[in-house]
Fold this protein.
Amino acid sequence: MKTSIATVSVPGTLREKLEAIASAGFDGVEIFEQDFITDAGSPRDVGAMIRDHGLEITLFQPFRDFEGLPGALRTKAFDRARRKFDVMNELGTDTVLFCSSGHPEALGGIDRAAADFAELGEIAAAQGIRVGYEALAWGRHVNDHRDAWEIVRRADHPNIGLIVDSFHTLARGIDPETLRRIPGDRIFFVQLADAPRIKMDLLYLSRHFRSMPGEGDLDVTAFTRAVMATGYAGPISLEIFNDQFRGGMPRNVARDGYRSLLALMDDVRRAEPEVVADLPAFPPRATVDRVSFIEFASQGQDAEALAALLQSLGFTKVGRHTVKRLTLWQQGEIRILINAEPGDLAASIYRAHGTSIYDIGLSVGSAADTIGRARALGADPFAQPLSPSQTDIPAIRGLGGSVLHFLDDSAALSDVWATEFTPVARPGPGVGLTRVDHIAQTMTYDEMLSWSLFYTSLFDMKTAPMVDVTDPDGLVRSQALSAPGGAFRITLNGAESHRTFAGAFLADSFGAPVQHVALATDDIFATAAALAETGFASLPLPANYYADLAARFDIDPEVLARMQALNILYDRDAGGAFFQLYSQPFAGGMFLEILQRDAGYDGYGAPNAAFRIAAQKRLQRGKAMPAR
Ligand SMILES: O=C(O)c1ccc(O)c(O)c1
Ligand SMILES: [Mg+2]
């Protein structure tokens, strides 16, 4: 299988694009004509530069408005084609994409278009060129791959074939199974792109909102399975027009593309093993059973303040690391570490970001397989010097330079707590916190797709629809990802403005990755009552919020009064009820959440987010204002 990506998908100058594409691991590139024209090199020089990067030119594109034109326009279109074939020969590529015409004077008619392509086929054959015809979803007369195929079939020329693009088929709601009846050797090229399912003009959606396969809502896997089942053996190429990617870092965009393409082809292979050839073998998506630990980087007085907060939340300091300045706090199955070791990554994280959660330990089916898949998909492995008594726990880099460690039931990894920590106390009674429900990460809006791809390509996790959260000073987009049964949940919060609570946290902490952690209890009223005794300060909510709850839901007035007294928030959906309680912000905008969810409630209390943010900001402003 040959992997490819269109130059239009990656930001930068042509040279920057090629460097990024080659280093991500692609075999080839589609040259988007504009990227070639803007370069100062001759076609031969550009071709040589591409090959010097170890890349093949898989396609030259696009040639627009060719078929169905009358008179002089038709003559000019053929002349244009000849000139472009010459350029292609100098560049060193033999396949070109002709997209269906949008020309206002194009006449339509399947036989007219077929006749144009039959004639073009002769010219192409003489110049050693293969022409692939693609139906644009907004083409004037041809906007469906089935019609494009009929034109190619009737043109009946060996140098004229079909090009299919998942966007054009899936965004129009055309059943991808219809591809299975096209002979694979008549398909000259395959382009892949995903997109969000939003009602929008298709041209606009395609030119601005395409995304890497797996980042959107289209069934690119079904499309690719159908194409591969035809026997198609040419390049598989990404063609992604996306506004955010245009402003991104070339290397990151190319790396994400390669990651998404490999994950996709692996899915196709697992569904239809006989249709995918020469894809390197790597393990399936990892199953995450739970969050095994959460590690803070903190030192000195900040670490003491954090320890006091954990104590007020009912955690017990149960262990001290045998060699490092690392303490282990526990309650239920929740383990929290505070790392004050001077030489560790934790120390540099603390210096750069202040107290922050920089390391998350996940309990997975197989730590070795998880690392195997992560490496295959281009994740960065993480390691730091260990003392001889320390266990080498497999790890990779996560969001914002943070770390993800993987633990499993293997002999070496299952007893790290016993072997590396000296017990200092038995866990106390606690306040009823049982497990980590979810981890909330904050990033810029432009990074959201990249991080959702990171998690969904590596772990068995699904994305929930994006929701808008209003902050008094801007909008925050929030997307949840969850493993089956909610065993592991992450919410990604994309801030567009530094003035939002999320954006200010991001700016003030120089990009620290975790803004809050939600801990589960089976009885939030009992937990809140216990917390009232420990000196824990919850986030106060206004009476208006509770009046609104009373209006929206049928809550027993006595229960509602207790919720108000304890600052408990509420939500309900068809699956059940959901209760939340927040800590006051600490360490520059971090906070903790305590929640109780019915088994059937799969959300995160999104309707409450705006009230939570307003309350947090009110508290911050109150603290910032001098006492009078
Ligand atoms: O948006 C376009 O014009 C365009 C051009 C070439 C393609 O292959 C495509 O899918 C879209
Ligand atoms: Mg295309």
